[in-house]
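Internal tracking record. Fields below are filled automatically when a chain is submitted to the structure queue. Please do not edit lines marked as system-generated. If the sequence contains nonstandard residues, flag them in the REMARKS field before resubmitting.
Queue: standard
Priority: normal
Entity type: single polypeptide chain
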Amino acid sequence: MSVEIELKAWVDDPDRVRLRLFSRAGQGTSFEKADAYWVFPGGCGAVPPSGVRIRRETRTDPAGAVSQALWVTYKVKEVRGGMEINDEREFSVSDAAAFEDLLRRLGLQKGIEKNKRGWAWNCAGITAELTEVAGLGWFVELEIITDDAAEGTVTAARTRLLALLRKIGVKKNRIEPRYYTEMLRAPQGVSGP
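SYSTEM-GENERATED OUTPUT FOLLOWS
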C-alpha cells in the first residue's frame, strides 16, 4: 500500500518558484498530464467517490528524452489540516480506449477532466511539482510517499513539506485544501485563498 502525503499551494510568481526549485534540485523534468475521471452515476461503494482516473502523461527529461505513460489510479482521499492523505492504487495500461470501453461496460461514465503542465523535481525524497492547472492557475505540489498514515508519520511528513514550502518562498497561507476536481466543478472565477 502506498500512502501519499501531500499539500498544494497557490503560486503567484511561478518563475521565481521555478528558479528556487532549480537551485535546490537541478533542471527538473517537464510534464503534461491529461486526466479523465470515471464515476458511477449516483455513486457506488466499490468505487471511491473521486472515481477512477485515467492519466495520459508525457515527460521530457533535461536531456530532451521524451517518455509517455498511461496510468489508472483510484484513491481513498482524506484531507487533514490542509494536507491530503491518500491511500492510492495505481497501475499502467497499454490501451486507454479498451480500458475506457471496459469502464463504460461496467456502468461508469466519464466525468470531469483536468489538464496540467509543469515541471517536477526530487528534493531530498520530496516530489515537488510546479504545475499550471488549466482553468485554475499555478500551484506547487509537494508530496511524500510512505507506507502508512499513522499520525506520527503524517506529522513528520507535514514538517518536511512545510519546511520545503517555506524554502521555495511560498507562504503557508497559500495552501489550498480543496481537491482540484472540487475547484474545477465550482463556478468560474475560482481564485486563491
